[in-house]
Each structure stands twice: as C-alpha cells, then as structure tokens.
C-alpha cells in the first residue's frame, strides 16, 4: 500500500486542486451504489430509446451487487456514460461534440504492460494523422476485491521538468514531481531538452508502478513558427498535438474507472496563453517580448499582452501549417453557446464554470464572457480523486519505499 505524503504541503497555484466533485456522493455509502446505479440506468433508458427495458436490467444489476459489491456496465451503458460524463464537464468549453466521443472498451485490461500498449493505441486513434478525434479508453473498474489499475501520469503525453540545483527548471515546471518519480522508478532521463517527452507511468491492478517509453509514432508534435516573425522559429518551441488527460476518474452509476484516459483537441490558448506563458510554466512572455523589441521596464507598455497575442498567433498558425486540429477561442466560444442552446432545446440542464469557460486571452471579446451559467453538477462525471492528484505529482514516492 502507498501512503500519500505531500511534499511540504506545496500546492502549485494555477493547478486547481479539486475536491471530489460535490455532486458525486461516495459510492461506498450504504445503499450508495444501488441508488447511483438506478439513477444512471434510468437516465440511459430515458435518453436512449433502444436501450433494453429497465426493470429486468435493474434486477440483474441488483443480483450482481449482492454477489460482488459492484456490477458491470454493458458496452452501450459504458459508451453512453462516458459521453455524458463529458457532457457534464462544467469546465470544458468543447462539449458541443460530446456524442462523437469514440469509446474504446478495454475493461478486460488491468496490467501495466497491457495499459501501456493500449495507451499507445489510444494516441494513434486520437492523433489520426493530425485530424484529432475525441477518444476515451476505459480500463478495468474498481471492485471490492480488486483495486483498479491506475495511470499515474497526469496526461498520456507530458514534457519532463528537470530541477537543476541551482538554476531554473529545464522543461515544464509543472511536471518536476512526476519526472522525479519516473527517475526513481529507473527511467534514465531524456536528452535534457525543454521538451523531452516523459515516459508513461502506470500501475497494474495489485502491481508496482512501472514506466514505459511512448513509441515515437504515438507522439505527434508541432514545432512553433510565426506567420511574420522569422526569429520566432529559433526559439525552438513546440507542443504536442493531443491533450489526453489520464488522471481523472470516470464515475458512472456508482462505478469508478480510475484509469480512463480521454482527449479532445487543443484550443490554442491552452498552449499559448497558459502552458507556454504562465510564470510557473514555460514563462515565455519576456522572451517573446524581447524578440518583439518591446519595452519591459513597466507594465504600461502592455508588453505581456502584445507578446501573448503573437505567441497565440504562432500556435494557431503552426498547428494549421502542420495539418493538426486546433480550435481558436473565438470559434470554440461560439460553439459552446450553440451547445447550450441545443441542450436546452433537448430539455437538459447544462452546468458550467465561468472561470474555466472564459478563455485566458481576450475574454470579453468572446460571447461566453457576457453571461452567467448554471453551476449544477451532474452525473456521470469525470472527477479528480485526491490520491490521483498526489500520484500525478509523483508525491507518493517521496519518503516511501515502493
Ligand atoms: N489544458 C490542458 C493542457 O494544456 C489540457 C486540458 C484538456 N484540453 C482539451 N482541449 N481537451 O495540456
């Protein structure tokens, strides 16, 4: 067993530390799984006229719970549950296409080896030569007699962060913890560039965690250039094409799937206004501003704002040039409002978190800024479980034998 120890209580500030969503009651509570199962099965039958009749299915689920403490979803239920979990993701602006999520049912897989292989398959299916497809791969569920497998890595693709002592981090400072964890597990480290792809860290059911290098053909990356500024290319910046979150738990009808990596496509601002720009990430605004020859002696030259625009332009331009799907924040904002209209027409509530929906660049120039949202939390859902956050920061290895 692991003890989850926090490194001196350090919290990374822009990483919002999420409590399990308040709308998701503990499935361990007495009667919890039964109620949650019934609520989900009713929802499925309500929305899908082709689903098998409710009462016999409820009786079957009840028998399974009686026998094993949990139950198995049918492939249809799993696919519906995963899609609705996306639909219910209050922080996601990209939900218009929730029905198109491709669901890879890999619930029979619970070994590290098997998961690493399937994660590679996931990335190939999602990358699709640059025409990014939303995909989820669902591994074995949690059961009372058998812990589910887990993916420690926060995303399938992440860049290493090497802590130099003294000196600034080389790479992505967000990932220093998991980089250390990989090394402690025996990863020899990458070449030491600011964009070394980390190995995937996975833990099979009842196994020790292991690291696996991702095969090259699974990791599509886009080198960044600017449409007008020749010097930009020399900064040597790049980003990966697929954002595949792998540390959130998919919760459907009282069943938890802790290993269920999923991806959509990027919105440019995630890279250009956060990953490369945040002061505790790649912190590149001063570098870009210097390239632009801007006066950085005070805030009022708006050097940060001007550098942000050029950096974000470079991201969109480079992804387009490479033939890799990327959304811009204006288009994605309009799509989100279309999503709200469609859902309302279907008679469903849509929860949304304003602070996550509004883009980190030019917020008020997008229509999503100028209104409020229903903040209801609904199930099925993707949830951050506290232990997954600890694992994804590599903190469980600190001071511990594994
Ligand atoms: N913001 C995260 C990143 O930059 C990815 C989150 C999911 N994003 C998405 N477009 N599906 O890596």
UniProtKB/TrEMBL annotation:
Ranges of Basic and acidic residues composition bias in the record: 8-19
Enzyme class: oxidoreductase
Enzyme Commission (EC) number: 1.14.14.47
Superkingdom classification of source: Bacteria
UniProt signal peptide: none
Keyword vocabulary terms for this entry: Heme, Iron, Metal-binding, Oxidoreductase
Nitric oxide synthase (NOS) domain sequence ranges: 91-98
InterPro entries: Nitric_oxide_synthase_Oase-su, NOS, NOS_dom_1, NOS_dom_2, NOS_dom_3, NOS_N, NOS_N_sf
Region of interest (Disordered), ranges: 1-31
UniProt catalytic activity: 3 reduced [flavodoxin] + 2 L-arginine + 4 O2 = 3 oxidized [flavodoxin] + 2 L-citrulline + 2 nitric oxide + 4 H2O + 5 H(+)
MF terms (GO), sorted A to Z: heme binding; metal ion binding; nitric-oxide synthase activity
GO BP field: nitric oxide biosynthetic process
PROSITE patterns: NOS
Cofactor(s) of this protein: heme
Quaternary context: Homodimer.
Family of this protein: Belongs to the NOS family. Bacterial NOS oxygenase subfamily.
Miscellaneous remark of the record: This protein is similar to the oxygenase domain of eukaryotic nitric oxide synthases but lacks the reductase domain which, in eukaryotes, is responsible for transfer of electrons to the ferric heme during nitric oxide synthesis.
Function statement: Catalyzes the production of nitric oxide.
Name of the featured protein: Nitric oxide synthase oxygenase
């Amino acid at each position: 067993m692991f003890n989850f120890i926090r490194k001196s209580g350090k919290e990374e500030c822009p990483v919002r530390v999420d409590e399990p969503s308040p709308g998701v009651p503990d499935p361990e509570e007495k009667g919890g799984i039964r109620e949650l199962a019934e609520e989900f099965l009713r929802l499925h039958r309500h929305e899908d006229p082709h689903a098998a009749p409710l009462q016999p299915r409820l009786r079957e689920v009840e028998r399974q719970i009686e026998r094993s403490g949990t139950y198995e979803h049918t492939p249809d239920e799993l696919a519906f549950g995963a899609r609705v979990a996306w639909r219910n993701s209050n922080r996601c602006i990209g939900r218009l296409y929730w029905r198109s999520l491709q669901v890879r049912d890999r619930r029979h897989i619970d070994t590290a080896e098997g998961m690493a292989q399937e994660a590679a398959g996931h990335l190939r299916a999602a990358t699709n030569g640059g025409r990014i497809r939303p995909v989820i791969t669902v591994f074995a569920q949690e059961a009372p007699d058998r812990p589910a497998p887990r993916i420690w890595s926060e995303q399938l693709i992440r860049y290493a962060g090497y802590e130099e002592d003294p000196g600034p981090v080389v790479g992505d400072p967000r990932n220093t913890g998991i980089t250390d964890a990989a090394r402690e597990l025996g990863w020899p480290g990458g070449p030491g560039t600011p964009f070394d792809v980390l190995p995937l860290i996975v833990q099979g059911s009842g196994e020790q965690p292991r690291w696996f290098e991702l095969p090259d053909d699974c990791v599509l990356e886009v080198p960044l250039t600017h449409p007008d500024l020749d010097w930009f290319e020399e900064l040597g910046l790049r980003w990966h094409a697929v954002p595949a979150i792998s540390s959130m738990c998919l919760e459907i009808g009282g069943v938890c799937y802790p290993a269920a990596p999923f991806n959509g496509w990027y919105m440019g601002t995630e890279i250009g206004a956060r990953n490369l720009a945040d002061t505790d990430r790649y912190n590149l605004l001063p570098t870009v501003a210097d390239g632009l020859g801007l006066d950085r002696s005070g805030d009022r030259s708006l050097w940060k704002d001007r550098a942000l625009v050029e950096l974000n332009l470079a991201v969109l331009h480079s992804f387009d040039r490479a033939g890799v799907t990327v959304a811009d924040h204006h288009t994605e904002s309009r799509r989100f409002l279309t999503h709200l209209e469609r859902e309302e027409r279907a008679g469903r509530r849509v929860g949304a978190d304003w602070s996550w929906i509004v883009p980190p660049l030019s917020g008020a120039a997008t229509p999503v800024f100028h209104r409020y949202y229903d903040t209801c939390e609904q199930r099925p859902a993707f949830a951050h479980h506290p232990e997954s956050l600890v694992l994804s920061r590599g903190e469980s290895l600190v001071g511990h034998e594994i």
